[in-house]
């Protein structure tokens, strides 16, 4: 074909073509067209250069189509079969189309094509070639390079080199800048059943809204490196490579989001829908967009990210617009043997059926490694790895129904702080963790979280804790553990937690090791727990119980740290059952803690496994909890604070219960050593008809007068736990009132009443005259009683008759006593005032003060039984209390009475006597009458020396006789 054709070194400008009937600038059949560097070809509609029948086109110049059409077009055979060229041969090795573009192509019209080649003779791909090394520009819906395969018609009048439907070969070499530029809905390269080879580095295709870099149709292969550059509207989308059939991607794809679109960018997209079609990725897909960026998206095909495949996406700004490594729209299978890395708020794999074989998936903070839905199955297989960051990140997130999530042998998972390993929010899902590779939790982490009341969790995986406040297995369905949960390192962690009707079972092979507690923060190490009691006064569910379920131990729980618990159940809907062993290995430990109406059963063994322990309790029952002991409780400790069963109500504890073991079906009778101890909490006081009740006597603290009327409780606290606070804050049912202590000397100049006895400490409740507790009490051996004498200084800030003393005032004493007070130690709370009661509530585990209430005693309590005059007077005085506000003379009088302590009863009696009028009131009446007489006489003297009396002189005698005698 080199012997005929055209060489253009000048200018060709042809017009007259239409969109229906285009024209050609140059046209050849079985020849060669060369547009040199100085050559230009311009047409309005049609093809700039057109060739058929084994022709060759070389463009080094410039080809421009101002309307609709094609810059360069090469077709295997034309409309009519020729008697020469490749039309007249059956050779399978001769090129039918050869296009080489080294110049510039620009096609302006809609749906334009830069280079077009068509294999319509069935020849081999190698015989239809396109080579492009220079930029190509097309408009809306345009295509930079198109290579089409058309099945040949087999007859004597047609040209066919085989019956195969084949395309050709495209070799696109990077030019150093943008190589193909398209408009809206444009495509850089379109090829059918062809080979696309991108060479020379990153081949850059730039498109606008809804554009596509490369559309690989049929059996098309893509190799090399593509940079897909989106330059469209900031809310629209674009795609790097699209495959519509079974395919293997061998091209690196780099996504560049020039306009920071949030509409979505996709690296590789497949629309293959034939049954069993698979897209395999062998290369690297990268992106850095902040929203809705996808590595691979499937709309009907299975996806395999091979062991050479790598997907890397950046941080997403928000998780609702997450970046996703691999996304399956339909119920196809995703298999990962490669590497997937996504940033914060992003998702590694999103789909239905997911196999992480030997691959690794890494998600950043608040990210998700695998998100699965529908009825899909997730398999984490041998040598697979998952790692997620901190702040609510998740390893596997399941939201479907009847799914199976399997962490199989040999798989591994790494979980960041405040994050989750596996989360099941579906319906009827099964989570099975069978890997023997330990999973280490940092801080505030959960390995399995279940909110699926029909779901099942089965754990055989060793769990360890490197930080604090972790949960091993948490859920409201059925949870089983047959592994080792070792939370002995860290504070406040819980091995298994059953919530909201769920049942958590530690199976016979399961071992739970309990870690430390921090009683100041109320963070307790617990082996198994259910129920939650809200003790936060600021919470809308204050003093309510929720999240109640059932916990069952058939294995072993080891409790070794102070203030830690083997099994904890709280609330009337909670139940704790022990069939296995609970080993107490340290002092101040509790085997089972049954609280606030919960029910406990022991069919197994609760025992101490070390000598010299103190304050060890097999079972602790409080606040209406129930315990039935059918098994063995053996606490080898003789101190007064140890017991087999420690309860606040003997009627709620069956120490030697008899029954049929539901597991072994044998009869059992419980034994307990030492014998049960009853330590009833002082939860109610009554004085003068006023009754104060605190839990467990009442669900919430209540104060009532003699007639049963509820007296509101005012909470009083300083703004901080320091000797010189800035404010006292009073919270009443009607609102919050802050008192600025520096604004008035009235509150700052009270002398302190603090004193210390040989057996206790005085607590000044003013928050101003700050009293410090005695330090070093832990050096006093044998200390069993500690008395706290609470002053009535807090009553100066309010006229309330019921006051809750705040945490900042109590904190120094709790801090000093936490190393001294053990469970059951008598911590006596006494009011120093004659006219106020002090009533505490205590933490059932630490026995330290939770709350302290000051309740005013009615003055009428001090009247003798038959002394009606005194009773009536004191009743009137009681009614006056609180009428006048802070700083008034009347309030100061009442503050003086409140400050009288237990040894000053005679002063109180004298004060009442004076106020009754026996002394002070009588003098007041005389003074008033005399004053009235003097006022009258002074008026007469002042009024022009008038003297209306019977005396005639101007000297007035003031000695008058009235009803009062002056002896």
Topology:
Layout: E1 5-8, E2 11-14, E3 23-29, E4 32-35, E5 40-43, E6 46-52, E7 55-59, E8 62-65, E9 69-75, E10 97-101, E11 104-107, E12 113-119, E13 128-132, E14 136-138, E15 143-149, E16 169-173, E17 178-181, E18 187-192, E19 195-199, E20 203-207, E21 211-217, E22 221-230, E23 238-243, E24 247-257, E25 265-270, E26 278-281, E27 284-286, E28 293-298, E29 302-305, E30 310-312, E31 324-328, E32 333-336, E33 339-341, E34 347-351, E35 353-356, E36 360-363, E37 368-372, E38 377-380, E39 385-388, E40 394-398, E41 404-407, E42 412-415, E43 420-424, E44 430-433, E45 439-441, E46 446-450, E47 456-459, E48 463-465, E49 471-475, E50 478-481, E51 484-486, E52 494-498, E53 503-506, E54 511-514, E55 526-530, E56 532-533, E57 545-546, E58 550-553, E59 556-559, E60 564-570, E61 575-578, E62 581-584, E63 589-595, E64 599-602, E65 605-608, E66 617-622, E67 626-629, E68 632-634, E69 643-647, E70 653-654, E71 658-660, E72 667-669, E73 671-673, E74 677-678, E75 684-687, E76 690-693, E77 702-704, E78 714-718, E79 727-732, E80 735-740, ...
Query: What best-fitting shape do the alpha-carbon axes yield?
Result: elongated
Mean pLDDT across residues = 87
Give the biggest sheet: 37 strands, parallel
Q: Helix/strand-derived class?
A: mainly beta
State the gist of this model:
With 967 residues, the protein is mainly beta. It is elongated and about 140 Å long.
